[in-house]
Please model this.
Amino acid sequence: MRMTLRKILKIAALLCAATSVHATTLARLSLDQLAAAADATARVRCSSAQSRWENGQIWTVTSFDVLETMKGTLPARITVRLPGGRVGHFTAIVDGTPKFNAAEEVVVFLERIPGGLKVEPAPGGGFSVAAWVEGTFRIRRDPRTGVETVTQDSSNFAVFDAATRTFHTEGIRRMPMEQFRERVATALTRAQEKSR
Model:
Protein backbone atom coordinates (compact mmCIF):
# COMPACT_ATOMS: atom_id res chain seq x y z
CA MET A 1 0.00 0.00 0.00
CA ARG A 2 2.87 2.40 0.78
CA MET A 3 4.38 1.95 -2.66
CA THR A 4 1.06 2.72 -4.32
CA LEU A 5 0.50 5.80 -2.18
CA ARG A 6 4.03 6.99 -2.95
CA LYS A 7 3.42 6.55 -6.68
CA ILE A 8 0.12 8.44 -6.46
CA LEU A 9 1.77 11.34 -4.61
CA LYS A 10 4.59 11.44 -7.15
CA ILE A 11 2.13 11.52 -10.06
CA ALA A 12 0.05 14.21 -8.33
CA ALA A 13 3.18 16.35 -7.83
CA LEU A 14 4.12 15.97 -11.49
CA LEU A 15 0.61 16.92 -12.57
CA CYS A 16 0.66 20.03 -10.41
CA ALA A 17 4.02 21.05 -11.85
CA ALA A 18 2.94 20.35 -15.42
CA THR A 19 -0.37 22.15 -15.18
CA SER A 20 0.67 25.24 -13.25
CA VAL A 21 -0.56 28.33 -15.04
CA HIS A 22 1.66 31.31 -15.71
CA ALA A 23 0.28 34.37 -17.45
CA THR A 24 2.28 35.61 -20.40
CA THR A 25 2.32 39.32 -21.14
CA LEU A 26 4.19 40.46 -24.22
CA ALA A 27 4.87 44.11 -24.97
CA ARG A 28 4.29 45.23 -28.55
CA LEU A 29 7.53 45.48 -30.56
CA SER A 30 7.93 47.17 -33.92
CA LEU A 31 9.76 45.53 -36.81
CA ASP A 32 12.65 47.94 -36.10
CA GLN A 33 12.80 46.78 -32.46
CA LEU A 34 12.72 43.12 -33.50
CA ALA A 35 15.49 43.72 -36.04
CA ALA A 36 17.65 45.44 -33.42
CA ALA A 37 17.04 42.75 -30.77
CA ALA A 38 17.65 39.74 -32.99
CA ASP A 39 21.06 38.13 -33.36
CA ALA A 40 19.91 36.63 -36.67
CA THR A 41 16.87 36.67 -38.95
CA ALA A 42 16.11 33.90 -41.42
CA ARG A 43 13.57 32.12 -43.56
CA VAL A 44 13.59 28.52 -42.32
CA ARG A 45 11.81 25.20 -42.86
CA CYS A 46 10.92 23.06 -39.87
CA SER A 47 12.48 19.60 -40.12
CA SER A 48 11.55 18.21 -36.67
CA ALA A 49 10.42 19.11 -33.17
CA GLN A 50 10.99 17.15 -29.98
CA SER A 51 9.73 17.92 -26.48
CA ARG A 52 11.53 16.72 -23.37
CA TRP A 53 11.85 17.21 -19.63
CA GLU A 54 14.59 19.57 -18.47
CA ASN A 55 14.95 20.28 -14.73
CA GLY A 56 11.28 19.53 -14.05
CA GLN A 57 9.93 21.56 -16.98
CA ILE A 58 8.95 20.63 -20.52
CA TRP A 59 10.89 22.27 -23.35
CA THR A 60 10.62 21.82 -27.11
CA VAL A 61 13.68 21.80 -29.37
CA THR A 62 12.90 22.36 -33.04
CA SER A 63 15.35 21.80 -35.90
CA PHE A 64 15.17 24.06 -38.93
CA ASP A 65 16.84 24.08 -42.33
CA VAL A 66 17.96 27.62 -43.14
CA LEU A 67 16.63 28.66 -46.56
CA GLU A 68 17.57 32.37 -46.56
CA THR A 69 19.52 34.49 -44.07
CA MET A 70 18.44 38.12 -43.72
CA LYS A 71 20.63 39.04 -40.74
CA GLY A 72 23.67 37.38 -39.19
CA THR A 73 25.57 34.28 -40.22
CA LEU A 74 23.88 30.91 -39.81
CA PRO A 75 24.79 27.32 -40.64
CA ALA A 76 22.59 25.22 -42.93
CA ARG A 77 20.67 23.81 -39.92
CA ILE A 78 19.80 25.44 -36.59
CA THR A 79 17.95 24.45 -33.44
CA VAL A 80 15.44 26.59 -31.55
CA ARG A 81 14.54 25.93 -27.91
CA LEU A 82 11.25 27.17 -26.43
CA PRO A 83 9.34 26.39 -23.22
CA GLY A 84 6.32 24.09 -23.34
CA GLY A 85 5.37 21.00 -25.30
CA ARG A 86 4.10 17.48 -24.78
CA VAL A 87 5.94 14.54 -23.24
CA GLY A 88 3.88 11.37 -22.86
CA HIS A 89 0.62 12.28 -21.15
CA PHE A 90 1.94 15.63 -19.89
CA THR A 91 1.41 18.89 -21.76
CA ALA A 92 2.87 22.25 -20.79
CA ILE A 93 1.32 25.24 -22.57
CA VAL A 94 3.11 28.58 -22.41
CA ASP A 95 1.05 31.36 -23.95
CA GLY A 96 2.95 33.37 -26.49
CA THR A 97 5.36 30.65 -27.59
CA PRO A 98 5.19 29.65 -31.26
CA LYS A 99 4.75 26.01 -32.23
CA PHE A 100 6.10 24.67 -35.49
CA ASN A 101 5.06 21.79 -37.76
CA ALA A 102 7.27 19.67 -39.99
CA ALA A 103 7.82 21.13 -43.49
CA GLU A 104 6.34 24.51 -42.45
CA GLU A 105 8.23 27.61 -43.64
CA VAL A 106 8.53 30.68 -41.43
CA VAL A 107 10.65 33.78 -41.01
CA VAL A 108 12.04 33.96 -37.48
CA PHE A 109 13.94 36.62 -35.57
CA LEU A 110 16.44 34.66 -33.48
CA GLU A 111 18.30 35.21 -30.21
CA ARG A 112 21.31 33.10 -29.32
CA ILE A 113 21.03 31.07 -26.13
CA PRO A 114 24.27 31.68 -24.22
CA GLY A 115 26.40 28.55 -24.41
CA GLY A 116 23.97 26.84 -26.80
CA LEU A 117 21.83 23.97 -25.56
CA LYS A 118 23.17 22.58 -22.30
CA VAL A 119 21.25 19.31 -22.44
CA GLU A 120 23.01 17.91 -25.50
CA PRO A 121 25.16 19.26 -28.30
CA ALA A 122 23.05 20.97 -30.91
CA PRO A 123 24.06 21.47 -34.54
CA GLY A 124 23.92 25.14 -35.38
CA GLY A 125 24.06 26.18 -31.74
CA GLY A 126 21.02 27.00 -29.69
CA PHE A 127 18.55 29.78 -30.41
CA SER A 128 15.27 31.06 -29.11
CA VAL A 129 12.75 33.13 -31.05
CA ALA A 130 13.03 36.82 -30.14
CA ALA A 131 9.75 37.98 -28.57
CA TRP A 132 8.21 34.55 -29.29
CA VAL A 133 4.97 35.08 -31.32
CA GLU A 134 6.07 38.58 -32.31
CA GLY A 135 9.29 37.28 -33.86
CA THR A 136 7.52 34.50 -35.83
CA PHE A 137 6.09 35.10 -39.31
CA ARG A 138 4.22 32.26 -41.10
CA ILE A 139 4.62 31.93 -44.86
CA ARG A 140 1.61 30.86 -46.93
CA ARG A 141 1.65 30.15 -50.66
CA ASP A 142 -1.52 30.59 -52.71
CA PRO A 143 -1.94 27.25 -54.54
CA ARG A 144 -3.44 28.92 -57.61
CA THR A 145 -1.14 31.92 -58.06
CA GLY A 146 1.98 30.79 -56.19
CA VAL A 147 2.10 34.19 -54.45
CA GLU A 148 3.61 34.00 -50.96
CA THR A 149 2.29 36.05 -48.05
CA VAL A 150 3.53 36.50 -44.49
CA THR A 151 1.44 36.64 -41.29
CA GLN A 152 2.91 37.46 -37.88
CA ASP A 153 1.89 35.05 -35.11
CA SER A 154 1.11 37.96 -32.79
CA SER A 155 -1.63 39.13 -35.17
CA ASN A 156 -3.79 36.51 -33.40
CA PHE A 157 -2.41 37.07 -29.87
CA ALA A 158 -3.32 39.90 -27.50
CA VAL A 159 -0.14 41.90 -26.88
CA PHE A 160 0.26 44.70 -24.32
CA ASP A 161 0.68 48.23 -25.67
CA ALA A 162 2.64 50.20 -23.06
CA ALA A 163 1.63 53.57 -24.54
CA THR A 164 -2.13 52.98 -24.15
CA ARG A 165 -1.80 50.40 -21.34
CA THR A 166 -4.23 48.10 -23.16
CA PHE A 167 -4.09 44.77 -24.99
CA HIS A 168 -4.45 44.62 -28.79
CA THR A 169 -4.28 41.94 -31.43
CA GLU A 170 -2.19 43.61 -34.10
CA GLY A 171 0.57 42.59 -36.41
CA ILE A 172 1.42 41.89 -40.00
CA ARG A 173 -1.30 39.93 -41.83
CA ARG A 174 -1.09 38.46 -45.34
CA MET A 175 1.67 40.84 -46.48
CA PRO A 176 3.23 39.84 -49.82
CA MET A 177 6.63 38.20 -49.20
CA GLU A 178 8.54 40.67 -51.40
CA GLN A 179 7.07 43.64 -49.51
CA PHE A 180 7.91 41.93 -46.20
CA ARG A 181 11.53 41.37 -47.31
CA GLU A 182 11.82 45.07 -48.16
CA ARG A 183 10.40 46.10 -44.76
CA VAL A 184 12.79 43.75 -42.94
CA ALA A 185 15.77 45.05 -44.96
CA THR A 186 14.79 48.64 -44.10
CA ALA A 187 14.36 47.76 -40.41
CA LEU A 188 17.76 46.02 -40.35
CA THR A 189 19.43 49.03 -41.98
CA ARG A 190 17.90 51.39 -39.40
CA ALA A 191 18.97 49.05 -36.57
CA GLN A 192 22.58 49.06 -37.87
CA GLU A 193 22.60 52.86 -38.18
CA LYS A 194 21.36 53.26 -34.59
CA SER A 195 24.03 50.89 -33.25
CA ARG A 196 26.89 52.97 -34.76
About this structure: DSSP finds three helices and twelve strands in the chain.
